[in-house]
Amino acid sequence: MTKKNKSTQKQRTSLSAIILVVICTLFTAAGQYFIKKGLLNVGNFWDLINFYLIGGFVIYGLGAILLIKALRRGSLSVLYPIIALGFIWVALLGTLVLGEKLTTLNWLGIFSIICGVTFVGLSENYKGDSK
Amino acid sequence: MIAWYNLLLIIISTMIGAVGALTLKNGAMNMRGTIIQKILNFKVWLGLFLYGLASLIAIFVLLKENVSLIYPLTAMSYIWVILLSKIYLKENINAYKILAIIFIILGVTLLTI
């Protein structure tokens, strides 16, 4: 009985959980970049053991730990959509590091994702959210 | 135009990813005991595995189809996660969350065209 009550209890998402997910998306984007860089000049099996590839997986793993920590402190339906920020970091990395050009529509896309993540942040304080 | 089997694969991938997120959340909530017990939490690893599997399927499809078609479709996982959270975690769906998903899917679409 108490167990059932506990599992259905409304859990409020703490601000720290949201910040953890945001940092997690930064880690995942950086990890992806390192892994891609690490795979670029791979000729044989031993080339796989290189700084970028191993570093990339370590950063990825740290991101996973941050996500798990965040999920312990907040609702999944609030925290999960924030992962969409990753799309923005990857696009910005592409512009800053690889010199890829972003079109006006792309920037609108970034703005739209930011709006979406803002809405999901607001959803916790929404009056209809409790009970 | 996207081949129907690739469309099906990407939809299945988003569903696997969403189940992975739910499993990870369940595992995260059940982590107790010593640090070793926490690290060996089965649901956490299952969740991460499903997550990885979903990514692998998505990468497989990305190799054959256009990025600007596939990325917006992968954003479907947000819909599944909000539905699964409602059903299994008794979390609310409210207007903000629906708006959030619409804006995110629109954003991912604009970002990849």
Protein architecture, described:
- The complex is a heterodimer of chains A (131) and B (113).
- Chain A is mostly helical.
- The radius of gyration of chain A is 18 Å and the shape is flat.
- Chain A has one domain.
- Chain A is 70% helix and 0% strand.
- Chain A has helices spanning 2-8, 15-40, 51-71, 76-82, 85-96, 104-122.
- In chain B, helix 4 runs antiparallel to helix 6.
- Chain A binds chain B through residues 8, 10, 64, 67-69, 71-72, 75-78, 80-81, 84, 87-88, 91, 105-106, 108-120, 122-123, 126, 128-129, and chain B through 21-22, 24-25, 27-29, 31, 44, 48, 71, 75, 78, 81-82, 84-86, 89-97, 99-104, 106-113.
Top keywords for this entry?
heterodimer, A: 131 residues, mainly alpha, 6 helices, flat, disordered N terminus, disordered C terminus, B: 113 residues, 81% helix
What is the topological layout?
The complex is a heterodimer of chains A (131) and B (113).
Chain A: H1 2-8, H2 15-40, H3 51-71, H4 76-82, H5 85-96, H6 104-122
Helix pairs in contact in A: 2-3, 2-4, 2-5, 4-6
Chain B: H1 4-29, H2 35-39, H3 42-64, H4 67-74, H5 77-88, H6 95-112
Helix pairs in contact in B: 1-3, 1-5, 4-6
Catalogue the unreliable spans of chain B: none
Shape of chain A: flat
What is the terminal-to-terminal distance of chain B? Answer: 14 Å
**SS field, number of helical segments of chain B:** 6
Main sheet specs of chain A: none
- Our measurement of the CA-to-CA distance between the termini of chain A, rounded to an integer number of angstroms, reads 19 Å
